């Protein structure tokens, strides 16, 4: 028998151990078998949501994580951003948007798991793929290959992160949320370029990672030669035909690209949710067990974090949560339904070692998962129950198909999968969207200080400019400080700037004789400046005047210039717009100019300027003075800008503004500006640019058939980005400082400040739609007391948090026509539609209405009826005052 003191000691020890272990879960083990990730001895089907913490603010994180969970995610996935965590070699930063520990803890406290992709190369459309730019300067370094200096740095950083996570008790076996890690990123795609050294590097990276003793599995994505002890995983639009490189590993999908990123001057890609759901369903159908949305929330490339070349500031990605963290509907809702359906299948999916496959037509196939599960607490009292789940797929891009399965006929729309959690009833079909759509509108809100009484939002056509007072300051062209140097060569851009700025000035002086001038006049030619190869943008100034600009990715530039007799000042401004983030040999890529710089069409042939005396100046004066901070902005002398002033290039602008009332996300419309950067209260909100995407190229989008990033694009003929997110937490009530650096001469007087919200929401559900998924958990259904055929489908509407359905703008149960914002009644219409729906929904944040004759009466016998509703959402405070 245990003595009391010993028992007390044990108790104390146990409590102490639990105290030391994480606060989020009871410590648990993570392993895997050929079928799935195994959590605490149980195989799991896992849905993961990609969120990159620095692409949002810590104030946004709780709601992003909560909305991911509500959408059905079990796991949050993020990269770790080395360049943000170690901006200066040896000096770590883990604060603010880079507070990784805080982010991981939030994930844990929401009861979600975390997949931490350390990289530390991450790609991610992030500047330099996540590498700090100082890494290039480590002597003898070659990135991502069997190179000692690189391996040393990589190991140091990876170890730092693993140790940080361990110290904070964030691994699963410590009761933390981390169930999986990642080393490297898609190295297999470029491994060939490195020959044997690449192969050795893969082995080294794998061993190094595992050697850190993190105690959870490591993944290498897109890595067919990942060693036996590392999981390999697929990235892409579809991964159902992916098979891991060992029979002992499960089928994992680390990046399901649910949209795509955009470039300056390009259109905006969208991926239809029917196709996305199809891809996910196909993956689980064919044996998949872990699937991550890249991205579930894309967010914003604040500051100069955007990769490139040339990626825009928004990283919306057409993700289920939009750039501001609002639900992107119907994407979010349709995926939520899909996840619920997959979860209903989970017992069968994990019980079966592999599915039974049936080909039921040329492009129709079924996978059935069957097994037994034990129920009950102890082995003595447990019972065994058989489970069955089936996925019915029609891969035909054009035609619907009727297929017979277990004695029943199922109609499958083209390019769709039906999910049958009990092998009998359809819980979900990927092409039938029952989730609501939402139309987001920008409001020209009145600033808080001018608003005493809350007003209904009727300002949509009333433009409110951000400010009536603007101050300006000129940025010097060329040299602006003593901190410059001269070299008899054209130096590579990054070698000089170390990426402390986008801008690098090259200045030289050139003597032109009278003869030369007459030669050009007589022959009617003009001299040209030629640069062999250039990225991302060059501006050519001759004798203080802008002569021209060119942009491109390692393009040749030939530009006519005007020179005068005597000395001519030639100033070249080289600009980067996000450093390369993908490909082999990144360290060699560099930026700026390559090859020779010449003056052509000269009397005696070309004049090579490459070895002339060039004086270098890094960055802008205002940038290095930190003009965008309150202290500096208030201590230098600005000039008043008049509204009718002609736009001038290379100028700084400053104003103060009041924050819009309410909690809706805030955006600036910078559509009137050219190219530059903007700061609010010292926070760098990103680069802006007015490049317009080509007029043609956007086509109406059909979800059917294989998706690619060019397939479904919008916004052709418009500027790629005009809305710039200003996170609420960066704003105060009034007197917010906006500072902008403008290169080409925009008009700041036309800048507006707005809020974004989903004001119009629509739902459309036919009476033949499958019943809501929560029915499956209903005791009467489980006990077989009611059949699924007795249950009715529901239309569900929901406004964003802190918003209320203020009115029902349209409702028709019958045969309504048209799409959201353009709805009309059909021949058949139940006259009580509007009153029934209003009664159920008005004044609430969300509502559900059963779609059946029981609710509306039967307006037309023998015809399949649909309920279609359009509602308006208003901030709850407005909705209250509006109804008063
Ligand atoms: C993948 C890469 C990601 C991201 C994605 C495109 O190849 O692993 O980091 O860049 O492409 O968004």
Automatic annotation (TrEMBL):
Coiled-coil features, chain-numbered ranges: none
Tagged with keyword Glycoprotein: yes
EC nos: 3.2.1.23
Record-linked PROSITE patterns: GLYCOSYL_HYDROL_F35, SUEL_LECTIN
Main location: secreted
Swiss-Prot/TrEMBL keywords: Apoplast, Glycoprotein, Glycosidase, Hydrolase, Secreted, Signal
A GO term for molecular function: carbohydrate binding
SUPFAM superfamilies: (Trans)glycosidases, Galactose-binding domain-like
Reaction catalysed by this enzyme: Hydrolysis of terminal non-reducing beta-D-galactose residues in beta-D-galactosides
Domain (SUEL-type lectin): residue spans on this chain: 793-874
Signal peptide region: 1-22
Entry keyword annotation includes Nucleus: no
One Pfam family matching this protein: GHD
GO CC annotation: apoplast
GO terms, biological process: carbohydrate metabolic process
InterPro entries in the cross-refs: BetaGal_gal-bd, Galactose-bd-like_sf, GH, GHD, Gly_Hdrlase_35_cat, Glyco_hydro_35_CS, Glycoside_Hdrlase_35, Lectin_gal-bd_dom
Protein's cellular compartments: Secreted, Extracellular space, Apoplast
Similarity comment: family membership: Belongs to the glycosyl hydrolase 35 family.
Name under which the protein is recorded: Beta-galactosidase
């Amino acid at each position: 028998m245990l003595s009391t003191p010993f028992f007390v000691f044990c108790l104390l020890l146990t409590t102490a151990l639990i105290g030391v272990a994480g606060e989020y879960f009871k410590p648990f083990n993570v392993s895997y078998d050929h079928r799935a990730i195994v959590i605490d001895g149980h195989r799991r089907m896992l849905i993961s949501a990609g969120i990159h913490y620095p692409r949002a603010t810590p104030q946004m994180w709780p709601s992003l994580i909560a909305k991911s969970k509500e959408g059905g995610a079990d796991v949050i996935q993020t990269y770790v951003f080395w360049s943000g965590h170690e901006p200066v070699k040896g000096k770590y930063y883990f604060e603010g948007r880079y507070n990784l520990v805080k982010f991981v803890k939030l994930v844990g406290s929401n009861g979600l798991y975390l997949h931490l992709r350390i990289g530390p190369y991450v790609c991610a459309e992030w500047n330099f793929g996540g590498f700090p730019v100082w890494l290039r300067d480590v002597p003898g370094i070659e990135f991502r290959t069997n190179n000692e200096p690189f391996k040393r740095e990589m190991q140091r950083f990876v170890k730092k992160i693993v140790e940080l996570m361990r110290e904070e008790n964030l691994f699963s076996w410590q009761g933390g949320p981390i169930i999986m890690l990642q080393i490297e990123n898609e190295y297999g795609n470029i491994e060939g370029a490195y020959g044997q050294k690449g192969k050795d590097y893969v082995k080294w990276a794998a061993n190094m990672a595992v050697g850190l003793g993190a105690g959870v599995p490591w993944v290498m994505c897109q890595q067919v030669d990942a060693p036996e002890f590392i999981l390999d995983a697929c990235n892409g639009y579809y991964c159902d035909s992916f098979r891991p490189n060992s029979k002992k590993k499960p089928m994992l999908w680390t990046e399901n690209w649910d949209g795509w990123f955009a470039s300056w001057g390009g259109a905006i890609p969208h991926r239809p949710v029917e196709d996305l759901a199809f891809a996910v369903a196909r993956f689980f159908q064919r044996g998949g067990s872990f699937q991550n949305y890249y991205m579930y929330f894309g967010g914003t490339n604040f500051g100069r974090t955007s990769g490139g070349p040339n990626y825009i500031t928004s990283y919306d990605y057409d993700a289920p949560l939009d750039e501001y963290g609002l639900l992107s509907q119907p994407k979010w809702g349709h995926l939520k339904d899909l996840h619920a359906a997959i979860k209903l299948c989970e017992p069968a999916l994990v019980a079966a070692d592999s599915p039974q496959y049936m080909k039921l037509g040329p492009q129709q196939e079924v996978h059935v998962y069957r097994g037994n599960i034990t129920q009950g607490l102890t082995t003595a009292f447990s019972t065994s129950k058989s489970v069955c789940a089936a996925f019915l797929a029609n891969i035909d891009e054009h035609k619907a198909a009727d297929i017979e399965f277990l004695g029943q006929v199922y109609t499958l729309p083209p390019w769709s999968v039906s999910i049958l959690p009990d092998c009998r009833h359809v819980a979900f079909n990927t092409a039938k969207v029952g989730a609501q759509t939402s139309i987001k509108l920008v409001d020209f809100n009145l600033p808080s200080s001018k608003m005493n009484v809350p007003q209904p939002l009727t300002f949509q056509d009333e433009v409110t400019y951000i400010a009536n007072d603007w101050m300006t300051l000129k940025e010097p062209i060329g040299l602006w400080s003593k901190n410059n140097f001269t070299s008899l060569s054209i130096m590579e851009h990054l070698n000089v700037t170390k990426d402390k700025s986008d801008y690098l000035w090259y200045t030289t002086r050139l003597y032109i004789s009278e003869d030369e001038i007459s030669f050009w006049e007589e022959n009617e030619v003009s001299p040209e400046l030629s640069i062999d190869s250039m990225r991302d943008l060059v501006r050519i100034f001759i004798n203080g005047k802008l002569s021209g600009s060119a942009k491109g990715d390692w393009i040749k530039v030939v530009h006519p210039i005007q020179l005068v007799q005597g000395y001519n000042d030639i100033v070249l401004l080289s600009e980067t717009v996000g450093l390369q983030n993908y490909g082999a040999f990144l360290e060699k890529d560099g930026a700026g100019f390559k090859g020779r710089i010449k003056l052509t069409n000269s009397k005696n042939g070309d004049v090579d300027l490459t070895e002339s005396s060039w004086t270098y100046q890094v960055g802008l004066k205002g940038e290095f003075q930190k003009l965008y901070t309150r202290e500096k902005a208030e201590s230098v002398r600005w000039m008043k800008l008049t509204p009718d002033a002609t736009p001038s290039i290379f100028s700084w602008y400053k104003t103060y503004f009041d924050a819009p009332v309410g909690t809706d996300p805030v955006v600036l419309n910078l559509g009137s500006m050219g190219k530059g950067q903007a700061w609010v209260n010292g926070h760098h909100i990103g680069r802006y640019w007015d490049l317009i995407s080509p007029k043609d190229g956007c086509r109406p989008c059909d979800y059917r058939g294989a998706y690619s990033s060019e397939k479904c694009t919008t916004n052709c003929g418009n500027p790629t980005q005009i809305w710039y997110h200003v996170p609420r937490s960066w704003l105060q009530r009034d007197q917010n400082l906006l500072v902008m650096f403008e290169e080409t001469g925009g008009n700041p007087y036309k800048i507006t400040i707005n809020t974004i919200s989903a004001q119009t929401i629509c739902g459309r559900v036919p009476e033949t739609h499958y019943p809501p998924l929560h029915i499956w958990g209903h005791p009467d259904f489980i006990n077989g007391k009611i059949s699924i055929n007795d249950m009715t489908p529901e239309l569900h509407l929901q406004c964003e948090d802190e918003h209320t359905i203020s009115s029902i703008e349209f409702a028709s149960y019958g045969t309504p026509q048209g799409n959201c914002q353009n709805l009309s009644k059909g021949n058949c219409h139940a006259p009580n539609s509007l009153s029934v729906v209003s009664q159920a929904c008005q004044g609430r944040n969300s509502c559900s209405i059963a779609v059946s004759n029981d609710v509306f009466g039967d307006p037309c016998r023998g015809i399949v009826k649909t309920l279609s509703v359009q509602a308006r959402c208003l901030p709850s405070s407005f909705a209250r005052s509006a109804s008063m």
